[in-house]
Amino acid sequence: MARYQLTLAYDGTDFFGSQRQANKRTVQGELEKALCQLGWTERSVLMSGRTDTGVHATGQVASFDLRWSHSDDELVRALNAVLPADMAVYQTRMVHATFHPRFDAISRRYRYRLFCQPVRDPIRERFAWRIWPPISGDVLPETAKLFLGTHDFSAFGSPTTPRGGTVRTVMKAEWSRSREVEDEWHFEVRANAFLYRMVRRLVFVQVVVAQGKVSAEAITTSFVKSEASEKLPAGLAPPHGLTLVEVAYA
Fold this sequence. Notes:
- By secondary structure, the chain is of the alpha+beta class.
- The protein folds into 2 domains: 2-95, 2-Layer Sandwich (Alpha-Beta Plaits); 106-249, Pseudouridine synthase I, catalytic domain, C-terminal subdomain (Alpha-Beta Plaits).
- It has helices at residues 27-36, 72-82, 139-145, 198-210, 217-222, 225-231, and strands at 2-10, 46-47, 56-66, 87-95, 105-116, 129-131, 149-152, 167-177, 184-191, 242-249.
- β2 (46-47) and β3 form a beta hairpin.
- α3 (139-145) crosses α4 (198-210).
């Protein structure tokens, strides 16, 4: 018996999130079904974290214990042969028996995609948020810088555990314009950890600032709990624009 770490990608459109749920299709549930066909007999795989219903991933990490007498590449091929079409394993490797994909992670990186158009685009909107009125491209990059560093992000999400804290350290927060499509923007954010729905909240707030509906100063004051609820508008960016890109380890 050995512990394996795998990197997993999925189109989150038809999943009720990543965490296993009774009577609902989830990423964890489909992965465990596939592993059972390879002789896996454990109770549960370990995941690096949850993704919401509709959120995608190219770098989700899971681990499990398995008796496997073949190579890592053969394990990748065997899993992909039995996984559904909207999931794929990119890599597997043997790791230490105590490895935990969530607690051993040192950072996570997400990407959010949006574009500005007055009319819906059924193809692009599967993986990007269509917004209108348009945004100011000069405002977005400067607004993102306000999140860098260690702050209390309680105005941008809720703790992932009942007694969890709301202080997080953001190491990267950058907007870039797509090279292929002029009206599309990508937001990259990396932090030591994220609150529940934090990235979608960060994106929503930056969009309303870039649309001129609220000042950037409201973000700065939001880091003070007593002022957060008075300054920032409620709302979340929709899940389909969000992708978990990378989970990093020491």
